[in-house]
Amino acid sequence: MKSFRRNTLRTLFAAPLAVLVTAAAAFGQGVIIPIDPIPLPRPIIRPRPQPVPQATYKIKELAVNARIEDQVARVQVSQSFVNTGSRQMEVVFVFPLPYDGAVDKLTFMVDGKEYEAELLDAKKAREIYEGFLRRNKDPALLEWMGTGMFKTSVFPVPAGAERTVTLRYSQLLPKQGKLTDFLFPLANARYTAEKVQKVVFDLTINCSENIKSVYSPTHAINVKRPSKTLAKVTFEEKNSVPTSDFRVFFDVNQKDLGASVISYKPEKGEDGFLLMLASPPVKAPDAERPKKTVILVLDRSGSMSGKKIEQAKGALKHVLDNLREGDMFNIVAYDSEIESFKPELEKYNDKTRKEALGFVEGIYAGGATNIDGALKVALGMLKDKTRPNYVLFLTDGLPTAGETKELQIVENARDRNEIGARVISFGVGYDVNARLLDRLSRELKGKSVFVRPNEDIEEHVATLYNSISSPVMTDVEVAFEFDDRAAEKGKNVNRVYPKEVHDLFEGEQLVIVGRYQDAGNAKVKITGKIGGERKKFDFPCELVEKSGDSSHAFVEKLWATRRIGEIIDQIDLNGKNDELMKELVSLSTKHGILTPYTSFLADDTGDVKELADARRGRGIAFDRAGEALDRLDADVSGIAGNAQRAAKNALREAAQAPAASGGGYGGGPTYRDIDSNEEKAAEGVRQLAEGEALYKRGKQWIAQNATDVDLEKDADKIETVERFTEEYFQLARDNTRTENAILAQQQPGEELIVRLRGQVYRIR
């Protein structure tokens, strides 16, 4: 997150009291407002021109602690900021409310001294916001104009001094069914001029019913579950800029398996989007876990010598130290020859663990790479269908011994996998056949992980194994049922991702997204094996006919992210397809989700017509995407082959939609560069959390909803509005929060083209 853009504190003699904003008027949890300290009445003075001292500050730390009891949140916010200017600042502090009218019991402290804070309704708050905006010409608060706020009295901050602002309030959280929503305003901080040194969230959720899913669509949170009714949520970032509001959903349910559905449908008559959260039961630390089978398959070919083989051996030791009594296991080491720890599966106990560790110590690197032979031996050991079976397969190279044809290796493995084991592939370094590993994971119900040369193999293997070490439900199937839907209309829910779930693990949260056609009441049915016995769980859900606002627009954006990953995967495995390419370009354009094949959208030297073509998935945009996609077939291995598969899988498995970006210090969204395998920022694109996107062409920023406008031919239909005039603020009053968020992206000196309620505006 970033601290704030620096503005000069101006002395306004005409105003009785000038309320000015530095640092773009916004940061994490609130806004610091410097007040002109010159007393009134003021004499008429004609001084010589002098440099005006700057009023600037930076944010050191933002810490949010919240305790949530069922539906009531008690929140404490502490922010440390430093006056980095050369003069004392007299400031007030304002805070946009997460939900209008939902906050009470407010306490405001500055370095331990309590200050008066006034709670304002939406109308009064809007007037104050407009006053800040008119004076400072900065739209940072624009998207909060529809909600209330609270404002403090004036307090001083000497030059160079540090102040800690502490805010406490209670909040009634909105609830839909059994799903509760916690929101904290952070997005305004994209206007900061420096990075915030530290941002910390610590939430304790304590409910009278069992807590099931705990999910954030905005941040990669850490969740711990000490008991069935208690959850601890933490998040920490250093030297960063918050660009999306912090949001957490949680649901409660007395059933062993909990599930909730969030739906979003922007327009009647169009497809809606749904997100389903499901979590298996939280077990006590001493509870018995289901027995499983794990086979570790290690490449010991010559290319693995040195640091790689030592890290790989460390990874095997981690798994061996974390198996449980009753698990079955074995180790297969391969180069051109295949060697097993034991001829058959072994039952895990202290004796076999020590013997296996000794076998691992004796592994050395040398020889060719017989991938087909290693998989044949490993899969041939698996006979028991009643327990979960996992093969952890590690390689750093191309198949050079035995069967070497990619498709034949995959076909052989599929035929030998008679009991449906999950094969999890680890590609180490850049010499692997990345497409082969992806094919194996697809056909054998697993996943593929790519480890770069500078990354730790042991860390990757340990992290993934820890996540799958306790399967709770296996052979999982998810279905949506509608009692009154005619059979001839086909499935109401379609394009669901992931396509197959397979297993649910303890501590894991299942996140499923999909599209739906018709609104109404439905039933989610989840079936799977628990302890070898088939179980079924039903959950009611409602799919909305039209969403009243954009608060759940993240569902569509997350669906689009996974759909883009799925499209790239289909092209990778089956070859290019015009329809898929058009859909890829269109989805990327609509949501500003950049890929290695649509990064050209951020080229601000391009033509506006290209954006219109991209929106329709045709023309120059289509051709450029096609040329880039040719590399999927050409780059099977090497840096480019690894980068493309890693980028594809990140999209397919995304738990959160790409973070909002743009405006100020934060830059644009990122994408993975094919040739360097590094993340790059796209300065010519800005994203909003609600799924909207803006594209830069020259000095103009064009909202996605106006990319079909011909700026020359349709010039007489475009209405021009000057920023911060009465006409501008009337637009803002009529806008939704999403529409104002688009306006808030505009920076000084820029021109914005946007469509609002059917009319195209040029705002300058």
Domain module tally: 4
Largest sheet: 8 strands, mixed
Count of β-strands:
40
The shape, in one word, is globular
User: What strand order characterises the main sheet?
Assistant: 6-5-10-3-2-13-16-15
Mean pLDDT: 85
Q: Please give the CATH class of the largest domain.
A: Mainly Beta
Per DSSP, the total helix count is: 14
Report the end-to-end length measured between terminal Cα atoms.
Answer: 28 Å
Give the helix level as a range of percent. Answer: 10-25%
Poorly predicted tracts of residues: 1-29, 35-52
**Structural Rg:** 29 Å
CATH architecture of the largest domain: Sandwich
Strand-residue proportion: 25-35%
Tell me about this structure:
The chain has four domains: 23-251, Immunoglobulin-like (Sandwich); 258-285 and 474-543, Gamma-adaptin ear (GAE) domain (Immunoglobulin-like, Sandwich), CATH 2.60.40.1230; 299-469, von Willebrand factor, type A domain (Rossmann fold, 3-Layer(aba) Sandwich); 554-763, no CATH class. The chain contains 14 helices and 40 strands. β20 (293-299), α2 and β21 form a beta-alpha-beta unit. An eight-stranded mixed sheet has the order 6-5-10-3-2-13-16-15, with no helix packed on it. Helix content is 23%, strand content 33%. The radius of gyration is 29 Å and the shape is globular.
